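Whiteboard transcription, Tuesday session. T.W. wrote the structure tokens on the left side:
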């Protein structure tokens, strides 16, 4: 591992001699940004966790409300369907009774 790092540093220095200072600046800037990000992430991490926790609770509450509303609508639709089904069955039974009565009167 150390040999790998050493070889890459030598290549980087050789590249810098040929006018690669821009790329060296990019690498150094990236490393500096990474270090600052690591230092600040611990502070922001708690804030992010708090925000995510609150949003998660809000989402859970909203989903529970939606689930409750859907359950109520499904129950209402089911009850409505059952009452219509029973109503149609009663009508069908009445028609059958009338047909039987007519057949009895006609003697067929």
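and on the right, the sequence the group agreed on:
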């Amino acid at each position: 591992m150390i040999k790998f790092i050493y070889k890459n540093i030598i290549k980087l220095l050789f590249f810098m001699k040929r006018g690669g200072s821009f790329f060296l600046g990019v690498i150094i800037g990236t490393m500096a940004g990474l270090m600052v990000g690591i230092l600040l992430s611990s502070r922001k991490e708690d804030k992010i966790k708090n925000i995510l926790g609150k949003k998660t609770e809000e989402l859970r509450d909203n989903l529970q409300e939606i689930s409750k509303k859907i359950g109520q609508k499904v129950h209402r639709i089911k009850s409505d369907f059952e009452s219509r089904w029973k109503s149609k069955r009663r009508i069908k039974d009445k028609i059958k009774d009338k047909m039987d009565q007519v057949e009895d009167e006609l003697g067929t």
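Someone added at the bottom: The longest helix spans residues 21-106.
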